[in-house]
Write a structure and sequence with these properties.
Blueprint lengths: L13 E5 L8 H16 L3 E4 L5 H12 L4 E6 H4 L11 E5 L2 H11 L2 E4 L4 H15 L7 E4 L6 H12 L12 E3 L2 H13 L27
Parallel strand pairs: 1-2, 1-5, 2-3, 3-4, 5-6, 6-7
Length: 220
């Protein structure tokens, strides 16, 4: 069900939540998804997520909606039927042509990113944000909600990439890790109260170095 976007309330954030389109096999993770959605709604924030009403995504969205949050779903058209979008809560539904366009829109509209456990799509979204942070293309917080040790292996891989010299040491420190949905919401609440950096003083976007033009061959 599509609802028109509502006006943003002062102090509220557009919080993008990455998580699985399946429930997984951990009851603790499912409970965390519901708690996170409820807390976002009660705090007056707005949920941005991948659309649909199934899996952890559906649990977060319904809990946020019932908690009073405005919900924005961003979903590729080819997933609209497959992920049971009609079972989703009332929301501002935005359909995209591709998964890449979905990610681009989510990254553009969100003020921060929270990640619950999920599958390959969730990893892809987290890595997209992390890579852009590393390249100084975006500076919005990325927070992993560590439930049932679901992110432990990922964090070990991130550290190993640095140890092997394929990333700067400490690159994984760009990710904030918390142990509960309540900690995640407290963290983004603090972010909402932090003064915003004016756009004109923000870091410049990374640009490829200019290369000199090749010499023009001259005829003898």
């Amino acid at each position: 069900m599509a609802n028109p976007p509502a006006e943003k309330r002062p102090g509220s954030l557009d919080v993008c939540v990455f998580c699985g389109a399946r429930l997984g096999n951990s009851t603790a993770v499912v409970a965390a998804a519901r708690e996170l959605g409820t807390l976002l709604g009660e705090a007056g924030h707005r949920l941005v997520y991948g659309g649909g009403g199934v899996g952890l995504m559906g649990e977060v969205a319904w809990a946020a909606y019932r908690g009073g949050a405005q919900v924005t779903g961003i979903m590729p058209r080819f997933l609209y039927a497959a992920e049971d979008a009609d079972a989703a809560p009332p929301q501002d539904l935005r359909l995209t042509a591709t998964l890449a366009e979905r990610k681009e829109r989510m990254l553009r509209v969100a003020d921060c990113f929270l990640a619950l456990p999920g599958g390959f799509g969730t990893l892809d979204e987290v890595l997209e944000v992390l890579t852009l942070m590393k390249l100084r293309q975006q500076h919005k917080p990325l927070v992993l909600v560590q439930v049932d040790q679901a992110w432990t292996s990922f964090l070990e891989v991130a550290a190993e990439i640095g140890r092997r010299g394929f990333a700067d040491p400490g690159a994984g420190d760009l990710i904030k890790v918390v142990d509960s949905p309540a900690e995640a919401v407290r963290l983004i609440d603090a972010e909402a109260r932090r003064p915003r950096v004016p756009a004109r003083t923000a870091r410049p976007a990374w640009k490829a170095p200019a290369h000199p033009a090749p010499p023009v061959a001259r005829s003898a």
